[in-house]
Write a structure and sequence with these properties.
Blueprint: H1 2-16, E1 31-36, E2 46-53, E3 56-58, E4 65-76, E5 79-95, E6 104-111, E7 117-125, E8 128-130, E9 140-149, E10 152-155
Parallel strand pairs: 1-9
Antiparallel strand pairs: 1-5, 2-3, 2-6, 4-5, 6-7, 8-9, 9-10
Length: about 160
């Protein structure tokens, strides 16, 4: 019985000495992420975003950029590198100060190089808080994502 008690006491001491995971200063942007999937993305030269709730609307700056994904990994000894290649998709982020964690109306308009409308859709999304350092380090955000694919726009 003494051995069991000693083992339990030692285990309790070791558990108490475990290093806590530090919370860093990394945050999460507040707003709406936009992804335009290929092949639709090839037709898009400009995008506008409107986010509305509680009787007011916000029109954040939204710049689409080419998306990339890991295409191959090369390792030599203890070092590895990854080659990134374009996916054909476009992505961007519109910062929206004060974005609530409740349903908002998002309107995404996509235009071609001549200014012609490629897609204009409105949908309701619910932004969520984000935990960039894990749930023990507090909530950041909130943010939402919309994805344009073919002729539809959906919540991501």
């Amino acid at each position: 019985m003494r051995t069991l008690t000693a083992c339990l006491a030692a285990l309790a001491l070791l558990t108490g000495c475990a290093a806590e995971r530090p919370c860093t200063a990394v945050g999460a942007p507040v707003g709406v992420a936009v992804t335009v999937k290929a092949p639709l993305a090839a037709r898009v030269a400009d995008a506008t975003l409107e986010v509305c709730w509680s009787g007011s609307c916000h029109r954040p700056r939204l710049e689409l950029r080419p998306a990339t994904a890991a295409a191959g990994e090369t390792c030599a000894g203890d070092s590895c590198s990854v080659t990134m290649e374009p996916t054909g998709d476009e992505h961007g982020f519109g910062t929206v100060a004060g974005l609530p964690k409740s349903p908002v109306r998002v309107r995404l308009t996509l235009r071609d190089a001549g200014g012609g409308e490629v897609l204009d859709r409105t949908l309701q999304v619910t932004p969520k808080g984000r935990f960039p350092n894990g749930p023990d380090c507090g909530e950041a955000g909130p943010s939402a994502e919309v994805i344009a694919e073919g002729g539809i726009v959906r919540e991501g």
